[in-house]
Structures are given as C-alpha cells and as structure tokens.
Amino acid sequence: MATILLIEDNELNCDMLTRRLTRKGYEVITAGDGAEGLRKATEHQPDLILMDMSLPVMDGWEATRRIRDNQRTTHIPVLALTAHALPEDRRRAFEVGCSDFETKPVHLPQLLEKIADLLEKCGK
C-alpha cells in the first residue's frame, strides 16, 4: 500500500481527500502547514506528497523547494494542489520541483490517475 502525505490547511478539503484516498487503498498522513509537512516528509518518507501551495507558516512553494533540496526527500514525487490555475502558476510549480499539477476544486478521477502515474514512474 502506497503512503501519501497530504499537506493541506483546509480541514474540509483534508478530510474529504483523506477519506477518498483511504477508500482507494492509500495510507494517508496529513499535515496542516508547510513546515509540518516538511518534517513529516523527512520522518515518514511517503511514496508521494500532495502539496497545497497556499499554506500557513511555510507556503507550498517553499516547502517543495526544501523537499527537493533535502537528500532524504528529493526523490519523493510532489503533486501540487492549488486554486491558482494560471499558466504561470503551473510553470512556477514545476520550477520549484513539483512532479505534476492539479487545480482545485479537485476532480477526483483525474487526481487519482495522476497519483497512479507518478507512483508507477517511481516504481511503487
């Protein structure tokens, strides 16, 4: 079973995604801000990270940069989840090290497909 770290500050979004991902067979670990997410990524070594980009304490842009700069976490795919849907937001997500990009509100079948593709690419 693949482990997903969901870094999301909105409790309703976090609860909804956790329940749906768990039903699909994923183990889900959650964090409510970028700094906590960075700690949990290092501690738990998840198979994939779903990263909200608008987070308190440390935003998702900076948290992703730090995940990529950390030798222990650089290999973990990061899928950006954001309401920022402009082309420059997508470009910026890839520039900071995200592996893929999904806009909110999340379209679950599309998100699940992206998760499966990223996990397959890293052999999970």
TrEMBL record:
SMART domains referenced in this protein's UniProt entry, alphabetically: REC (SM00448)
Family annotation (PROSITE patterns): RESPONSE_REGULATORY (PS50110)
Modified residues (4-aspartylphosphate): 52
Presence of the UniProt keyword Mitochondrion in the record: no
Limits of the Response regulatory domain: 3-119
GO biological process: phosphorelay signal transduction system
Keyword Phosphoprotein in annotation: yes
Keyword annotations of the record: Phosphoprotein
InterPro entries per the UniProt record, alphabetical: CheY-like_superfamily, Sig_transdc_resp-reg_receiver
A Pfam family: Response_reg
PANTHER family named in the record: HISTIDINE KINASE, HYBRID SIGNAL TRANSDUCTION HISTIDINE KINASE J
Name of the protein: Response regulator receiver
Source species: Desulfurispirillum indicum (strain ATCC BAA-1389 / DSM 22839 / S5)
